Each structure stands twice: as structure tokens, then as C-alpha cells.
Amino acid sequence: MAVSESSAQNYALSDPDVRLMLQVRDGSAAAFEELMVRYQVRLVTILEHLVGRCGQAEDLAQEVFLRVYRSRERYSPEAKFSTWLFTIANNVALNARRSKSRRREVNVEPADSSGLGGAPLDQMALAASGQMPARQLDKTEMRDVVRLAVGTLNERQRLAVLLSKFEEMSYADIAEAMEMSPQAVKSLLSRARENLRVVLEPYLQRGERPTASDP
Amino acid sequence: MNDDQRKPAESSPLREQLVAYLDGELDAASSREIERRLAREPEVQQELQQLQQTWDLLDRLPQAEVNATFTRSTVEMIALAVEDDVRQLEAAPPRQQRRRRLLKAAGLLAAGACGFAAVRFCWPEPNRRLLQDLPVLEHLEAYRQTPDLEFLKRLNAEGLFSEEPSDES
To answer: How close A77 comes to chain B (CA, Å)?
Structure first.
């Protein structure tokens, strides 16, 4: 994408992370480490909620940082740094998904609650069936219910939701990161939030926990 | 729960506007329109409230925990990858240089061939005239004995001057 000199300067002036990336372009390893420290948790969090596995999310995050570093010499500020980074993350996640489907790998949820995994689905189903003694509205339960609800979204909806919620990205920035139009993002987020409402509302109202097949 | 509620959501213009309103993505006129509807229509107000409540629940999602090992291993992995890149770059020049040398030699050969052709076809051959005049030169002394130019022209017309020089002469 062609970018004018003035818009590149605007990004450099308004976004401190763009300035750091420009230092990386000029050979500063310290600037790169600073960017990594600033973004690693945010990036791994998004990827973890996206792919559902802690280990894979970290591998993908490393791949994203490697791509950032390799493209440093060609870097030109065409967007906010975070938008650029999550565009790369989206591409890396897409590639991982493609190679996974080529390998015909079966996606198995982690059995333990390490990382963001939370309670396994069989426990969730048990809870939903009412065989658990009492509904406990504790943090862990709520977290697991929300995680399960996010898991019911398709991958595009999930990424749009995560970028909107955690990165507070505008529709225009999400559109750029996901290579869509802002109008398509508006529709995508609308459907995603309606799906979340359908899954979570019964839990909020009556304590009915979602199952893996929702919505 | 009503099964119809569990179907994947379809996008509706009102819901899109409500979500965009919550996300602060509407212009002033559209925001005012939504606010007018919220004031008049309880069901719209309820839908907005539910969308907001469920959206707020996402705050419960945990952040990933990234320890120092991740940072260190990422830096090491990138350093190794960059080292690999440098090695490949260093290994590449001899091949590239060989190719460049071959291309240069081919270019020089082509330029030489073009130059030779140009000289061969465009530059006047200094001995060409001498070769043409050789039969006359060989008998120059004899021709000088003949004062009549017309006589010599007749001899030329009969092909006397164009005969091949013999080895004896």
C-alpha cells in the first residue's frame, strides 16, 4: 500500500510504538526488546483466546515477533503499530489454521486448567446438568463460562471481538488488521455480540451455563 | 431456553446500529436517532442493556501469563534466525558473483561481436581498392606505352584488365 510521507510522519508523531519500530528499522535491538515487552502479553492473550492452546499461542507469538524483526528494513508506518502487528498476527494464525487443516489435526481442548484453558468441557456439561451441588458465581466459574461463550464464536468473530474488547481497536483498525471493510466489521461484530448475548444471557438470568454446541 | 434463541445470529440493521452505538462508532446524527428510539421503545432499551451486560462479561477473560523465559527464548530464537539469514546471505554471494561474472562475459562477447560486425560492414577496406586495381598495376608499365586512352578502354571492355593475375606474373 502506498503511503504518503506526511501520513507516515503523522503515525510517527502520534504513535510512540511506531517511533520504536523506526528505531528497530535503524538497527536498535533495545527498541525491539522494548516493543516485545510492551506487546507480548497482549499478543499471547489474543492468540491464546483465538487458538485455545497456551503453547501454540506462544509459538505463534514468537513467529509474529520474528516476522516483525525480519521486515524491519522495509518498515514504513502505514498504520498504528498495533494495527500492523495484529495484521501480522492474523496472517500467522490463518497460516497455522491452514497447515493444521492440511494435517487433518483434531483440535482437542486441554484437559487441565493451565493457561487460559479453564475447566474442561465435561465439567461444564456436568454443571449445566445441575448435578453440581450449588451454583457458585465465583470468578473461576464466570471466567470459564465466558471463555466457553467466546469459544462458540467462529474464528473471524472471535478475532474481531478480541481486538475490539482487549485492544480497543476502532472498526477501521480492525478492518485493516483483518483485511475487511469497516462495514463488514460492523456486521461481524454485531453478529458476534448477538451470539454472545444468546449464549450468556440465560446464564446471567437463570444460571444456565452454556454448552460447547451453543449458540 | 427457546431453541430459536440458540441459532447463530443474523445481522439486523437495528442491532448493528446498537452495537456501533455502544462502540462509539456512530456519527452524531445516528447516535441521536438511536437515543430517540431508546427513549421511546423499551424493547430496544432492553436489547441494548443485554448487549452491554454480556460484553462487560468479557472482562472476566484472563490475560495470558508470559514469563521471562518466553521473552528470553523469543530473543534467542530471533537471534538464531537472523544468524541463519546472515549465513545464507554470506553463502549466496559466490553464486551470485559467478552469475554476475558470466553475465558480464556474455555481455562483453556480444559487444565485441557487434563491434566487429559494425567495423566489417561499415568501415572502408583500405586494400579493397588495391585488389580491384591489381590487374592494371601489374601491367602499368605496358599501359604507359600506349598513349591512346580509347584503345585502353576498348581493351578493358574486352576483359583484359579483369583477368585473374597468374602465379607467374
So the answer is: 22
Average pLDDT of the segment spanning A46-64: 90
Range 75-114 of A in CB contact (< 8 A) with B: none
Q: What's the pLDDT tens digit per position in B56-84? A: 999 999 888 888 888 889 989 888 888 88
Residue closest to A210 by CA, chosen among A129, A106, A135, A136? A129
Q: Write the CB contacts of A73 (distance below 8 Å, at least 6 apart in sequence).
A: A25
pLDDT at residue A73 is higher than 80: yes
State the CB neighbour count (10 A cutoff) for residue A204. 14
3-state secondary structure of A76: coil
Return the number of other C-beta atoms located less than 10 Å from residue A176's C-beta: 21
Cα gap A39→A17, rounded to integer Å: 10
Cα–Cα distance, B52 to A182 (Å, whole number) = 21
Q: How confident is the model at residue B10 (pLDDT cuts 50, 70, 90)?
A: low
Q: Are A116 and A51 in contact (CB under 8 A)?
A: no
Taking Cα atoms as reference points, which of A22, A153, A34, A41 lies closest to residue A84?
Answer: A22
Backbone angles phi, psi at B43, to 5 degrees: -70, -35
Inform me whether the pLDDT recorded for B90 exceeds 50. yes
Nearest to B73 by CA among A115, A55, A112: A55
- The Cα A108–Cα A116 span in angstroms is 14
Whole-number Å distance between alpha carbons of A121 and A42: 26
Query: Which sign does the torsion angle of CA A97, A103, A104, A106 carry?
Result: negative
User: Which of chain A's residues have a Cβ under 8 Å away from the Cβ of B78?
Assistant: 62, 65-66, 69
User: Chain B residues within 8 A (CB-CB) of chain A?
Assistant: 1, 5-12, 15-16, 18-20, 23, 25, 50-51, 53-55, 57-58, 60-66, 70-71, 73-75, 77-78, 81-82, 85
B11-20 burial, b at 16+ Cβ within 10 Å, e below that, comes to: eeeebbbbbb
The whole-angstrom separation of Cα A204 and Cα B12 is 23
Kindly report the pTM of this predicted structure.
0.67
Cell numbers representing residue B23 in the block:
462502540
Q: pLDDT confidence of A52, banded at 50, 70, 90? A: confident
